[in-house]
Amino acid sequence: MASLRKTHPLIKIANDALVDLPTPSNISAWWNFGSLLGLCLITQILTGLFLAMHYTSDISTAFSSVTHICRDVNYGWLIRNVHANGASFFFICIYMHIARGLYYGSYLYKETWNIGVVLLLLVMMTAFVGYVLPWGQMSFWGATVITNLLSAVPYMGDMLVQWIWGGFSVDNAT
């Protein structure tokens, strides 16, 4: 008699995907970081959505709204800390994922590697925007320093910085 996990249609799908899945013999724990990145991304999106429900984006009230989230919103302190520490864990997983790719020679697959580099740059830009959102002193000066790096671009650097700032200094338009 055949076992239930091989005959029942729904259980068979789970069995084929989790139990009887063919796996290379040289697989190691290093191959988990891609899945951990997916889990971190889902956590970041969910906690970010919950934080966005109470966040105000105006520079005069942004810091107050973050304080309001931490002090007055039920479990807001927990959601904010999970979001902030999740971002750090996300980057740890990214760096470990890149290290595994370098160690195993994944850079030889040029298209896949180039897409990974583009994704890394996009994640870094997104993290910078998230760093600036609370609009405290660290956020303000972080935005000022990082956007001023673009002023080193020859001929058009200053115009590029003013365009990103939306004026002549880091302000509400930024």
Write up this protein.
The chain is mostly helical and 174 residues long. It has 2 domains: 32-134, Cytochrome Bc1 Complex, Chain C (Up-down Bundle); 136-174, no CATH class. The protein is built from 8 helices and no strands. The longest helix has 28 residues, at 76-103. The model has no long low-confidence stretch (mean pLDDT 93).
Report a brief summary of the structure.
It is a multi-pass membrane protein. The chain contains 8 helices and no strands.
Quantity of strands, as a count: 0
Mean pLDDT across every amino acid position: 93
The low-confidence runs, each spanning 5 or more residues with pLDDT under 50, are: none
Largest sheet: none
Layout of helices and strands, plus pairs?
Blueprint lengths: L3 H4 L1 H11 L13 H20 L9 H10 L4 H28 L6 H23 L4 H12 L8 H9 L9
Helix pairs in contact: 3-5, 4-5
Which characteristics define this entry?
single chain; 174 residues; mainly alpha; 2 domains; 8 helices; 0% strand; flat
